[in-house]
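Subject: Re: docking follow-up (molybdenum atom)

Dear J.,

Thanks for your patience while I sorted out the input files. As discussed at Tuesday's group meeting, I've set up the holo structure prediction with molybdenum atom included as the bound ligand rather than trying to dock it afterwards. The sequence and the ligand SMILES I used are pasted below, so you can double-check that they match what you have on your end before we go further.
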Amino acid sequence: MLIKIKTNLDIPSSEITDKKLYLNRREFIRAASMAAVTAASGSLGSDLLMSDTVQAGEKLEGVVKGPYSTDEKPTSYTAITTYNNFYEFGTDKESPAEIAPKTLKPRPWSVAVEGEINKPAVYHLEDLIPKTLEERVYRHRCVEAWSMVIPWVGFPLADLIKRFEPTSKAKFVEFTTLYDPEQMPGQKRAILKWPYVEGLRMDEAMNPLTILAVGLYGEVLPNQNGAPLRLVVPWKYGFKSIKSIVKIRFVEEQPMNTWALAAPDEYGFYANVNPEVDHPRWSQARERRVGEFFKRKTLMFNGYAEQVAHMYANMDLRTYF
Ligand SMILES: Nc1nc2c(c(=O)[nH]1)N[C@H]1C(S)=C(S)[C@@H](COP(=O)(O)O)O[C@H]1N2
Ligand SMILES: [Mo]
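The structure tokens for the complex came back this morning:
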């Protein structure tokens, strides 16, 4: 019998984390101040967000702890804000942090809300953000098999949807990112079909885990993370979590989503994290947490099965990947 002994030599260098993401001082400072941020109350987080001069990284006050947070160690602030997928600013992980802070203007901002609802309108961003914001520390799993733990600041999408009064024909929700090649220079190249679009089934959109994020680590969301408003759906691969949203549309038919349009054999509509369904070009069974050395097993629904598995009880998740 041959026993395979795992050594460091088995790990290809591409999987060894970039040292700058590995350990950093700021992470510890942030972790310590986070407790203080979430304990604070009185002034309102959204007051700051209403100002047209608000800057990425400004501290949000009065953020309360939300449900469903993992107690796993958050990924460093530096990694979360410099290792991004945001093709509107380039296809590598570093470009969004270099370009988006200079070119994207996340204030003032408005969101068109349309389709099968009683209250369609173009809403100012400040009218969409509730007074109380929550911190939710969620796992975040990218299809390329890396993952992070991110302390988001946001609010349940369900609360917002109820305000729009969806009709009985609203079966899906479609989200659209800003299209403006001057602010998003990556859109000058046809790498993807612009603008980026994503969709959720109505029950997924209403699930209590689904949030719209306006901040992270207790601070205003940096542009590269999808300012001023981005979706977070923690049991799905990262590409479902669309950034810099300018349109929310309620529809009867399943909407198209950008990655499924670009490569339908590789990316589906559902995009549930599923270690049993491999991406055609690589396994989905394991993941590397950014900042860690060894890979870990990927959990079904990214570890959120208890909250979400019931929504897919009668579906073959190999067909609906
Ligand atoms: N508009 C837009 N949204 C997007 C993307 C994108 O390229 N454009 N990339 C997606 C992918 S593939 C991932 S993994 C997450 C990354 O989010 P993060 O950079 O905040 O970690 O954003 C998603 N949302
Ligand atoms: Mo991704």
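A couple of observations from a first look. The chain is about 20% helix and 20% strand. Residues 84-88, 140, 142, 177, 196, 225-226, 238-239, 241-244 surround MTE (ligand 1) (CB under 6 Å).

Let me know if you'd like me to rerun anything.

Best regards,
T.
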